[in-house]
Design goal:
The protein is of the alpha/beta class. Helices cover 38% and strands 18% of the residues. GO terms for molecular function: antioxidant activity; oxidoreductase activity.
C-alpha cells in the first residue's frame, strides 16, 4: 500500500458532513424546551387569576357601561344593566373553579344584603363555567336573595368589559358610568368604602392612589 493510500484512509475528508447528534438526544431537548415554555405560559396565565385586591385602572373607567343582556342563572328571564340605571351597580365576574371567588363570596353576600336598600344593585356574572357548577357554588359559599346572578355562557359580557382574570369587580355609578374596577378578590371593607364614596358622588380614592387592600 502506498503512502498516498494510507493518508487517504487516515485523514478526514474536509467536505464530509458532520456526524448527526443522536435523534433521541435532540428529541429530548425539544421536549424539554416545550415543557419549559408551557410552564412559563401557564404561570403567566395563572397570574391573571387570584390577583391582589386592588382597584386598578381600566380603559373603560369613565365610560358608559356596555348594555349587555344576559339570562338569569337560576330563574327565567334576562337581565339588562340598563334596567338598573339610577342605581349604583356592583358587577362581579366569578366562576366556581376560582379559589379567590370562594373567599370573597361571603363578603359580597353580606354587602348585598346590607346595601341594596341604599340603591345599590349587585350582579354576579358566572363566566367560563356551567350553570350547574355555578348553582352548586352558591349553595356552598352563599347567595344573597337581594343580588342578581346571570350566566355569561358565551362570554359576551366578559368580552364587553375586557375581563382578563377572575374575579374582577366593576363599580358603575347612577348615570351608568364605570367608576372603578377591582382585580382580584374583594373584601367587605373595600366594597363598602368604595360604594360609600360613590353614594356621596365622589370618585373612589383608591382609583387615584392604587392603595392595596388586604383582608383582615
Amino acid at each position: 500500500m502506498s503512502e498516498s493510500d494510507t493518508s487517504s484512509e487516515s485523514e478526514p475528508d474536509g467536505n464530509a458532513e458532520p456526524i448527526d447528534e443522536p435523534k433521541q438526544g435532540r428529541m429530548g431537548l425539544v421536549v424539554s424546551t416545550l415543557f419549559v415554555g408551557a410552564v412559563v405560559l401557564f404561570a403567566m396565565f395563572a397570574s391573571q387569576f387570584g390577583q391582589d385586591k386592588i382597584i386598578t385602572a381600566s380603559p373603560l373607567i369613565g365610560r358608559s357601561a356596555p348594555a349587555t343582556v344576559l339570562p338569569y342563572l337560576e330563574r327565567a328571564g334576562e337581565l339588562s344593566l340598563a334596567d338598573y340605571e339610577g342605581d349604583i351597580i356592583v358587577l362581579n365576574f366569578w366562576a366556581s373553579w376560582c379559589p379567590p371567588c370562594r373567599l370573597e363570596q361571603p363578603d359580597l353576600v353580606r354587602a348585598a344584603d346590607e346595601l341594596t336598600d341604599l340603591g345599590v344593585t349587585f350582579v354576579g356574572v358566572l363566566f367560563n363555567d356551567d350553570a350547574g357548577a355555578g348553582s352548586r357554588f352558591l349553595d356552598t359559599y352563599g347567595r344573597s336573595d337581594r343580588a342578581h346572578y346571570v350566566l355569561d355562557d358565551k362570554s359576551r359580557m366578559a368580552f364587553d368589559f375586557g375581563v382578563i382574570g377572575l374575579p374582577e369587580t366593576f363599580f358603575i355609578d347612577r348615570n351608568g358610568i364605570i367608576q372603578a374596577k377591582i382585580s382580584g378578590g374583594v373584601s367587605y371593607e373595600l366594597l363598602t368604602a368604595t360604594i360609600e364614596q360613590m353614594i356621596l358622588g365622589n370618585t373612589p380614592d383608591s382609583v387615584k392612589t392604587g392603595e392595596l387592600q388586604t383582608r383582615d
